[in-house]
Amino acid sequence: MDAAAPKLVLAPIRGITDCIYRTALQQWFPGFDRAVSPFIQLRRGHSLRPGDVRQLAPENNRVLPVTPQVLTNHAETFTQGLRQLRDLGYAEANWNLGCPSPTVAGRGRGAGLLPHPDRIRAILDAVFSTSTVRLSVKLRLGRHDPSEATAVLAVLNRYPLSEVILHPRTADQLYDGELDIPRTREALSACRHPFVLSGGVSTMEGFTELSKQLPEVSAWMIGRGALSCPSLPARIKGKLSAENGTSREALRGFHDELFAGYSEWLSGPGHLLAKMTEHWVYLSTCFARPKHVFVRIRRSRDPERFRENVEWAFEQPMAPVMR
Ligand SMILES: Cc1cc2nc3c(=O)[nH]c(=O)nc-3n(C[C@H](O)[C@H](O)[C@H](O)COP(=O)(O)O)c2cc1C
Fold it and tell me: Which residue from 78, 126, 226, 293 lies 20 to 30 Å from 206 (Cα-Cα)?
């Protein structure tokens, strides 16, 4: 791998970037260096859920290295979760301080901790005094107020974190709206850890522009941009040019591998079709008429009809970026 090429991290997108997706993506569209898993919710007094253990089992994550992400605001539960992750083979975990969902942030977890740097400090004190697992943090600029990150970063600077990943929006903004570049610059210069930017990379041109504005970023985390255009990471790495973009065949191979993976992983055609429809929200944007394609796929009532509709979809013109 070219040492000068930007380091790329697949973002956690709950419901989408699970181990089946990560494996199929890396096999058909290599470009990411690593991934962070969607969050697993740690529960007081309980072990990891069997579904989370299955998702993170090393044998299901052989193709793309993954860092498990945890969601908690309770030090003891945190430490216990880290211990279980270490037993699964993980020397590093990522702590979610960004989830904006009212049921999470409203209960003082995820972005709900950002207005409380004192609580973050107390939790990290306890975790670092008892745990040997390496830790990184993914945060937003704030819950309601983008200036909250300043005090949080000052706390994060006190601990030997492996990296800090910033999604430069507030929780109130959810997933859309302007990224706050001036505050990102401030955060970058205030942060003493390797700094990863999450958000805003959805095209090659967008990446080029952002990387000029923020040259000190140590790695780039890409979520929806790669889901909607799986060849984007390879393009950013300089492995694909405009002329030899993603082929229809690679997209088909990727899709069929997802389908085969979920057919084994999930029980029953209902779950399988629901999961594949979730993926088609993004896959359909690879086609010239995404809405038209998605509506037809979503109408599939059974796997047989789904297969027919997939055949039809792959006969449709591709979006320009995919040709
Ligand atoms: C549907 C959805 C689910 C997400 N799930 C997670 C998650 O589990 N953990 C997390 O840290 N971020 C999560 N995110 C945030 C992304 O990781 C990322 O920070 C954000 O989407 C901005 O990056 P993008 O524009 O490249 O997608 C989620 C985003 C979306 C849209």
Answer: 293
Backbone angles phi, psi at 167, to 5 degrees: -100, 105
Q: What are the tens digits of pLDDT across the range 143-176?
A: 999 999 999 999 999 999 999 999 999 999 999 9
pTM of the full predicted structure?
0.97
Span from the CA of 56 to the centroid of ligand 1 (angstroms): 18
How big is the chain by its Cα radius of gyration, in Å? 20
| Per-residue tokens: 228 | 């909607």
Residue 209's domain spans which residues? 8-236
Contact between 275 and 266 under an 8 Å Cβ cutoff? The reply is yes
Tokens of 266: 């999930």
Measured by CA distance, the residue closest to atom 25 of ligand 1 is 199
Q: Whose CA is nearest to atom 6 of ligand 1?
A: 13
Q: What is the distance in angstroms between the CA of the first residue and the CA of the last residue of the chain?
A: 25
CA distance 136 to 34: 14
Domain count, the chain: 2
The rounded distance, in Å, linking the Cα atoms of 52 and 74 is 19
Residue 90 maps to a domain? yes
Burial degree of 37 (CB within 10 A; 0-12, 13-18, 19+): buried
